[in-house]
Write a structure and sequence with these properties.
21% strand, Rossmann fold, elongated, RNA-binding, 16 helices, five-stranded mixed β-sheet, BirA Bifunctional Protein, domain 2
RNA sequence: GUGGGAGUAGCUCAACUGGCAGAGCACCGGACUGUGGCUCCGGUUGUUGCGGGUUCGAUUCCCGUCUCCCACCCCA
């Protein structure tokens, strides 16, 4: 048997109803903040991610699905292509390519699959889905304003509430601009140098390669040492400090609760200033529902104009897991099960189904070879509200038997009143 | 990439130290020709993840492999 390959999975009904519920709500909520959808290709030039996400990140250095194109044209020959591991680089590439800066401030969102070659576990798949949004534009359009950071975070809080996700936590930090991080990295290295020998193996490696990651360490023995390390908040320059201060102020006045976490660092190279994560307890070790932050230098590093931006990505698989609702609650059941009774009734039944469906009634259609008993049973199992009996008596008189499958009550309804009778109960 | 656990019917799970693969639920048919949910009877439940090995005999023991789950790394 051919099976879905490692780290990929089929989403089947009724679960797909949950995904549709999430995506529909996302469209409504983001739409209210004047975000518009963008769709970028599923694969891009490998170079885009190497330059955008960062050559040294785990994503680029060991998790990408990359292959060499076999095109014969000179322009395609030996071109390295990669299934997108995230979508921000693609959005910024499209922004640059189509000169979207001419449109002022862009507020874009996307929903789609991403690919990373990691070992699968709870909340982690090789093909996974992200819902993301980006606010990007020239500084004169207000893209750099702390208002954008706060608005984005407030929108996320609203979305989670609308979806019925309870018990989330917003963790907030500022990781400063590039110069701040360079000074901070240096300070961390110096602070770690005398103590790193007492730390775990991972930390000893991080202390040299990427000191910021030391803060991810979960080894209990290392925590007292980590507590003593200098904090990024002490290394922010004045503009960054003020920017972060305003983000916090606006957020507070908007009534969005948050927790400061100066150990929160983002893993992709392009992040600057505001960094955040929404976490949820029901997710196991992969407890981040979504993460994001500012990326004021990303466009330039991809050869584009200097356009500040901020964005986030939601792990849709994880979001669906943390949903309080069940698939049953968000599924639409048939309003009516149409039961043709006896030879020749199929033709009548499909005409009735067509009329009712045009009234936005969900109708399931039986078959004339079914006995009435089987039809009623089938309708019940499907969760239909009514059974509509289509027999010779009904067709000849134009008055149909409409049975409420929950109560057993049955009444006679004229053909032109059927839609009204069925919809009355919706 | 590393470590641990698990794979038996559509689902949840049994099967002593190696001895005829089972139960519940679900599904299909009948009792019951135009009125369901209850009851009774009957039926399929199946390459025991896959491939090898040991054995008279393997779901069971051994080796390999695949997948899933949990954790690490890292991220959403």
């Amino acid at each position: 048997m051919i099976k879905a390959i490692r780290g990929t999975r089929d989403l089947l009904p009724p679960d797909t109803a949950l995904w549709n519920f999430v995506e529909k709500t996302v469209g409504e909520v983001f739409g209210a903040y004047n975000f518009q959808e963008i769709r970028t290709p599923i694969f891009e030039a490998t170079e885009l991610f190497a330059r955008g996400v960062g050559e040294e990140t785990d994503i680029v250095s060991k998790e990408m699905f990359t292959w060499e194109d076999r095109g014969r044209a000179q322009s395609e020959k030996n071109q390295l292509l990669t299934l997108r591991p995230e979508n921000t680089a693609g959005v910024v590439r499209a922004y640059i390519e189509h000169n979207l800066q001419q449109r002022g401030l862009n507020k874009l969102y996307y929903i789609g699959p991403q690919f990373r070659r990691e070992r699968p576990q709870k909340g982690r798949y090789r093909q996974f889905y992200q819902i993301g949004a980006e606010v990007i534009g020239p500084a004169s359009s207000g893209s750099e304003s702390p208002m954008r950071d706060a608005e984005l975070l407030e929108m996320l809080a609203t979305l989670l509430d609308r979806l019925g996700v309870t018990g989330w936590t917003l963790e907030l930090n500022s990781i400063g601009c590039a110069a701040d991080r360079a000074r901070y990295n240096e300070a961390l290295r110096q602070a770690l140098d005398p103590v790193k020998d007492k730390m775990c193996g991972d930390c000893q490696r991080r202390a040299v390669t990427n000191p910021l990651r030391v803060f991810d360490c979960k080894v209990p023995e290392d925590q007292p040492i980590i507590e003593q390390l200098p904090r990024i908040s002490e290394y922010l320059d004045e503009p960054c400090r003020q920017h972060f201060g305003q983000v916090k102020e606006i957020l507070t006045s908007a009534g969005v609760p948050f927790t400061l976490n100066d150990r929160l660092v983002r893993g992709l190279d392009y992040y600057t200033r505001t960094a955040f994560e929404f976490t949820h307890g029901a997710l196991g070790a992969q407890n981040a529902i979504l993460g994001g932050g500012r990326y004021d230098g990303l466009s330039e590093s991809l050869g584009g104009p200097p356009v500040p931006g901020i964005g986030f990505a939601i792990g849709e698989d994880r979001l669906v897991m943390s949903l309080g609702k069940t698939a049953e609650e968000v599924s639409r059941k048939p309003d009516v099960y149409i039961a043709p009774l006896g030879a020749g009734m199929n033709k009548e039944a499909i005409r009735l189904a067509r009329e009712l469906r045009r009234h936005n009634i969900v109708a399931e259609l039986g078959d004339e070879t079914f006995r009435l008993k089987k039809s009623l049973e089938t309708g019940s199992k499907l969760g239909a509200k009514y059974a509509l009996i289509v027999g010779e008596n009904e067709v000849s008189t134009g008055v149909f038997a409409l049975k409420n499958l929950a109560t057993g009550e049955q009444k006679s309804v004229a053909r032109n009143e059927l839609a009204g009778a069925i919809r009355a109960s919706q």
